[in-house]
Design a protein that fits this description.
This protein is α/β, with parallel strands linked by helices. It has seven helices and seven strands; from the N terminus they run αααββαββαβααββ. The structure holds S-adenosylmethionine.
């Protein structure tokens, strides 16, 4: 079984309990991040739709993608039960090869996603491709601590967290973002250097 299939299966398996785990992200963090959105939005790794109730009414449209059908089912239930003032489309798709043309979206959102995307560099390059040149990418992501000893502990615990809930806790996501050619405009530390709110530009000439 390849790594994509493994991660997908893991999220299918934990989809039933994910509603408890998504509390790891404070509601206030989700609210603050999403208050900055504009225009047509793509949310990657939408999961069970934990962000849905935080989208402001000025959202023009929302497309949510995830490669786990079971996680998406929870998001679909929330869309069916909620009263949203903007159109929402949910698509089963892989972030590493998004089924959208270049320059499609004004805002792209990812919350706690790049800890689990099997090849984060190709995922970030896809975000860059489908983001409009004057668009923005808003992220809430956790990553390996900048503090050496904490980072070492995270390295040691990583095999366990991957097995338990599919998340790598020792990804060096800031390096990967820079490597992908994206431009980091805002880097706010929410929990030491581990949890961050980021605002990133596609940096297309
Ligand atoms: C930790 S959950 C976060 C869910 C949601 N964003 C939140 O804030 O609660 C990560 C999600 O990313 C999805 N995911 C991981 N890699 C993916 C990929 N390559 N393509 C699409 N979805 C992916 C998983 O299926 C899972 O639903």
């Amino acid at each position: 079984m390849n790594i994509n299939e493994k991660v997908k299966r893991r999220y299918n398996r934990i989809s039933g309990i994910y509603e408890i785990m998504d509390k790891m992200i404070k509601e206030e963090w989700r609210f603050n991040l999403l208050s900055n959105i504009a225009g047509n939005v793509l949310e990657v790794g939408i999961g069970t739709g934990a962000n849905l109730s935080f989208y402001p009414t000025h959202t023009k449209s929302l497309t949510g993608v995830d490669f786990s059908p079971r996680m998406l089912k929870h998001a679909r239930d929330k869309v069916a039960k909620g009263h949203f003032s903007f159109p929402i489309e949910l698509v089963e798709a892989d972030i590493q090869s998004l089924p959208f043309p270049d320059d499609s979206f004004d805002t792209i959102v990812s919350t706690c996603v790049f800890c689990s995307v099997p090849d984060p560099l190709s995922g970030l390059q896809e975000l860059k491709r489908v983001c409009k040149p004057d668009g923005q990418i808003l992220m809430l992501e956790h990553m390996k601590s900048d503090q050496k000893w904490v980072g070492t502990v995270m390295d040691l615990l990583n095999p366990l967290t991957v097995r338990l809930w599919g998340a790598n806790i020792n990804r060096e996501t800031m390096n990967t973002i820079e490597h992908s050619g994206l431009l980091i405009e805002k880097d706010k530390h929410l929990m030491g250097s581990i949890f961050r709110e980021l605002s990133v530009r596609p940096n297309k000439s």
